[in-house]
Amino acid sequence: ERLKGDARRAWEEAAAAGIEPCAFAGAPPQGEVLVDALLGTGLDRPLAGDWLAAVEAMNASGRPVVAVDVPTGLHADGGRVLGAAVQATATPTFIGRKFGLYTGAGPDHAGDVVFHDLGVPADIGAGMEPLAWLIDPVWARAMLPLRSRTAHKGCFGHVLVIGGQPGMGGAAQLAGRAALRSGAGLVSLATAPEHAAMISAVRPELMSHGVSGPGELEPLLERATVLALGPGLGQGAWGSALFQAALASGLPLVVDADGLNLLAANPSRREDWVLTPHPGEAARLLGCPVAEVQADRLAAAREIRRRYGGVVVLKGAGSLILGERVFLSATGNPGMASGGMGDVLTGVIAALLAQGLAPGEAAAAGACLHGAAGDRAAGDGERGLLASDLIEALRGVVNG
Q1: The domain over range 21-126 is classified in CATH as 3.40.50.10260
Q2: Are 167 and 139 in contact (CB under 8 A)?
Q3: Average pLDDT of the chain?
Q4: What pLDDT shows up at residue 25?
């Protein structure tokens, strides 16, 4: 008798179909497959009481769980867990894709997401700006400029990677190689002197220059189109001096790794850079705990953009890209949780900027293609996936 409206009608239809309801007694439910249809998309407070007990019972059952629209306990618009959440095997979702299924804790709890519009016209939301635009590799490749038959290397920009303090030359090399495989016309490296010869020998297409300080960086800056700042840069005197020289150059920038750590220590704001923090770097930029970033990833990315300007790529499961519009990329896999992946992303985005894409489009397409390269490279399994494996996959991904 407590049920009203749609809930009451659904109850009556279930009874008419021969479904016999029973009271939840706290034990794991019976059945080979469990269906989670406890609560809808409007949940905004932690589960408690019987709701919490039911979720815990489903998770403890060891059986496949199909969640209807969104797993109970997962915030549909934020992807955070509200106390506890159903660990679904699959989630069919309807009419509109739920933002929280694709970012934060969503991918871990939703399982395989299947979308169905239920026959609702696609233009029902015309004129409404979505929370985010979900992008895929087809969209990303459509952003890439067509190449003229008479094109030459100067048509596709010159990326200068600044990084690779002693012992970290691999980071700069990964970024440079990724930029080459993503279509940049020329790629130079400004790195610690001891790394330059080795990098040139391993990858002769990279123009590797050993620089001891800002004075030796100046002629390289004059020839560059876009800077990739931060891979292996370090936060010592050498890295700090090159960081300041890069900012003073006025060139567009992609900033990652120690570039972001230096920025957190010396905040500034500009509109011509792309910042690519992982949650830990985002927390340093905001001066807050990592858990606070992950609790509301969209709010954290918006605050970084408000403080620092430009375009923000908040990396992680369901990477968020915030510029004039908000994009969400669901490509990528857990195998990419290893060193050097961020360096590769930096090179990809820098290459797309150098080829003439607007910062927001370069960041979104770059994040999506980077994840797609990770998915392609994980064909033999996610464990043991290396950043350099992505570079080998990038050429095929960007060309379709």
Answers
A1: yes
A2: no
A3: 96
A4: 83
Cα-only R_g, the chain = 24
Long-range contacts of 263-271 (CB under 8 A, 24+ apart): 263/308, 265/235, 267/307, 267/308, 268/308, 269/307, 269/308, 269/309, 270/308, 270/309, 270/310, 271/309, 271/310
In sequence order, the β-bridge partners of residue 65 are 34
How many residues would you count in the chain? 400
List pLDDT tens digits, range 127-143: 788 899 999 999 999 99
Residue 11's nearest CA partner among 30, 37, 29 is 37
pTM passes above 0.90: yes
Cα-Cα-Cα-Cα dihedral of 162, 168, 172, 177, to 10°?
Answer: 170
- CA-CA distances (angstroms) from residue 252 to 172, 255, 362? 18, 10, 12
pLDDT over threshold 70, residue 1? no
Q: The domain 138-399 is classified under which CATH number: 1.10.10.60, 3.40.1190.20, 3.40.30.10, 3.90.1150.10?
A: 3.40.1190.20
What's the pLDDT at 350?
99
Task: Please report the sign of the dihedral spanned by the C-alpha atoms of residue 279, residue 335, residue 331, residue 345.
Answer: positive
pLDDT of 125 > 70? The answer is: yes
At 98, list the tokens.
């739920």
383: left (phi > 0), else alpha (psi -120 to 50), else beta?
beta
